[in-house]
Amino acid sequence: MQKRKTTVPFKGTKEQEERLYKVIEELKNEKGALMPILQKAQEIYGYLPIEVQEIIAESLDIPLEKVYGVASFYAQFTLNPKGKYSISVCLGTACYVKGSQQVLNRISEKLHIQPGEVTPDGKFSLDATRCIGACGLAPVMMINDDVYGRLVPDDVDKILEKYN
């Protein structure tokens, strides 16, 4: 597996680690503890980096592969950090037929990242989604809670400038 060159290094704090160990200690003897521990770990760190998965696996005395399998299977979990500005481009049918793939391509080109990645400075992350629920404004993207609709690729630069 090739490691992405645009990932942000793990920067967990001692306080986060202590919180994680406390959660594990509280939940480890419950049946099905892995899911709630992963959920709490993601609340603590914002995502589930391999370093956190290793702590969970070791603490629960289960294989890392099992922790990774659960974390990578469920859509509620993310293995990659999110940027300060999280960009989601809708690729649902209405948006796609109106050109959202070209908008996504322009963002990727501008930021030098692919969907699922974060810029090296941690400022922007990019995701392709299936529906934002604003089909009447297709094609649509969101940056954090801001919705931008009726987009064309030429709109991208001006919109991104607002977040610099």
From TrEMBL:
Cofactor: [2Fe-2S] cluster
InterPro entries in the cross-refs: NADP_DH_HndA-like, NuoE-like, NuoE_dom, NuoE_N, Thioredoxin-like_sf
Binding residues annotated for [2Fe-2S] cluster, in chain numbering: C90, C95, C131, C135
Cofactor note text: Binds 1 [2Fe-2S] cluster.
Keyword field: 2Fe-2S, Iron, Iron-sulfur, Metal-binding
Taxonomic superkingdom: Bacteria
GO molecular function: 2 iron, 2 sulfur cluster binding; metal ion binding; oxidoreductase activity
Record-stated family: Belongs to the complex I 24 kDa subunit family.
Name assigned to this protein: Uncharacterized protein
Species this chain originates from: [Clostridium] cellulosi
